[in-house]
Amino acid sequence: MSPSGSKSRTTTPSAFEQQREELVREIAVGMEQVLQNINQLNRNLESIITVGNEFGSVEALWSQFENFMGRPEDENGNGDGKANEGHEENNKRRGQDEERESTFIQER
């Protein structure tokens, strides 16, 4: 090959090289958009976590309340037993309701 032939190749890229450069540019643009979307997702997740952390004290308070209400009556300081009678009455009614429901279902 002559030196002038190699100069023309270096100054004017082939169709393949032009297409490759265009595809590389498109890929770069696409990767930039992906990066921007990931950054936006990260910011959204951080804000969600921040909002969730704001409820930590409320959750702790409800947890304490739940633990307190879940204790047996003698541990709550009500040793008279009257409150326990109400719970027993509710449990009896609940059991009767469940029996009626199961009988109704079996009849169908």
Q: Can you summarize this structure?
A:
The protein is mainly α.
Overall description:
This protein is mainly α and 108 residues long. The protein has a domain at 15-52. Helix content is 83%, strand content 0%. It has 4 helices and no strands. The protein is rod-shaped, with a radius of gyration of 37 Å. Residues 103-108 have low confidence and may be disordered. It is found in: Chromosome, Centromere, Kinetochore; Cytoplasm, Cytoskeleton, Spindle; Nucleus. Keywords: Cell cycle, Cell division, Centromere, Chromosome, Cytoplasm, Cytoskeleton, Kinetochore, Microtubule, Mitosis, Nucleus. Belongs to the DASH complex DAD1 family. It holds the Pfam family DASH_Dad1. Its main location: nucleus.
Count the E strands.
0
Average residue-wise pLDDT? 77
The Rg value, from CA coordinates, equals: 37 Å
- Our estimate of the beta-strand percent is under 5%
**Number of continuous helical runs:** 4
What's the helix and strand layout?
Elements lengths: L2 H9 L3 H40 L1 H15 L11 H26 L1
Give short descriptive properties of this protein:
108 residues; mainly alpha; 83% helix; rod-shaped
